[in-house]
Amino acid sequence: MTEIIRAAWLIAVKDLRVEARSRELIYTTVFFALSCLLVFAFAFVRGGRPIPDTAGGILWVVIVFAGTLALGRTFERERQTDTLRALLLAPVERPAVYLGKLAAVLLLLAAVEALVVPVVGVLFQAPIARAPWLLMGLLAAGTLGFAAVGTLFAAMLVRAQSRDVLLPVLLYPVTVPVIIGGVLGTRAIFAPEPDFDTARLMLTMLVFFDGVFITIALWVFGPVMSE
Amino acid sequence: MRVATRLVPVLLVVAVVMLARAPFLIDAAPYESTMGLVQKIFYFHVPSALVAMTSAIVCGIASTVFLIRRRRLADHVALAAAELVVVFGLIVLVTGPLWARKAWGAWWVWQDARLTITLVMWMLFAGYLLLRRFGGAGSEVLAAAVAIFGTALVPFVYWSVNIWRTQHPTTDVVATLPPEMRWPLRWSMLAIFALSGALLILRTQLERGRAELEDAYAAVEE
Fold this sequence. Notes:
- The complex is a heterodimer.
- Chain A is mainly alpha-helical.
- Chain A contains 8 helices and 2 strands.
- Chain A has helices at 2-22, 24-43, 55-80, 84-89, 94-123, 132-157, 163-190, 196-225; strands at 45-46, 49-50.
- In chain A, a hairpin with a 2-residue loop joins β1 and β2.
- In chain A, α3 runs parallel beside α6 and α5 packs antiparallel against α8 (196-225).
- Chain A has one domain (2-225).
- In chain A, strands 1-2 form a two-stranded antiparallel ribbon.
- Chain A is globular.
- By secondary structure, chain B is mostly helical.
- Chain B has 7 helices and no strands.
- The longest helix of chain B has 43 residues, at 179-221.
- The interface between A and B is medium-sized, with 23 and 27 residues.
């Protein structure tokens, strides 16, 4: 068990080191997220004020869109440099590769969220400081569930044709429970009369789906990635 | 497989005869007191939904077997079952709103957990077929992984009505039906299951034939 965690850690560190040197993903993903916010600013602001109850949804749509892009790119990079086979040939358990990739994607998305959340707070007048721990919990659990399925799908689609369009087509229906939980929980916090019980209930649901998704993904990753 | 081949004509005859008789039985069934005529959609809506869910489970089991054992037959069954999910799911998604328009006053209600999850499950299996069609070589393995996630959603579809707040009638409805309504429902359920069984076997055989033809082409080219 510790062996798997150590291998996963090494793979995550490798991914983060590559990212730290090129900064390709973080720059492009953050600017993509900001571009999405710009579109929403025109779609959901009327008479100078944001339409009520939209901030939570906007936040999650931006996270999901930016996350899809980042997921596709992390594995595209392995394919372009022809290192995917080397990664799969590494003498470690297959789940370790999955966990390492997942950890790297999660850290990247956390960095993006750290920037996007305050921007949503400013642009759409969302009270992000109202229940910071609960909001962070929702974001963490939601992103984990989304990235858990996303990492698996992006990894297995890496050799498929038309992978760019197939990734969201397959990923969004599967992760819909996570998106619903995230949006409803965040909206409950941002509402004029906050409903923290609903937010907590959604957090529990997110944790449950995280467990289901990670279990299936860990089990499926090995057979799917073998050649 | 030979048994399955012999089963096809039997299933088809049963399905055709029963489906031909079904409209008369449904017509003879009493009108539901508040909904009237539209309630009769129920006799096709519920069986189609059950076939779609059963096919999703079949697809998930076949995909799991395929991922572990790599038997081609399992893959062909999974593909056939996935197509049944999409076809019968479409029937459910069309008949449901037709009934809801009359019963609830709206074609579609988004707060309803069952409607949302049914749509999501249908989209997922449609995505499965898209992946198999446009994913290129080796996509059957990837599709198997998608199918396993899709099947994990099925229990949520079934229980969603009883757990979450929803307008959709609960699953108790079937058990508490008066006998004169239960009979036509059972009749059409059997008919549609016979039809879907025949379709499943035929589609699996077609897929096997297609794979054999592909092998033969590959052998000739070598």
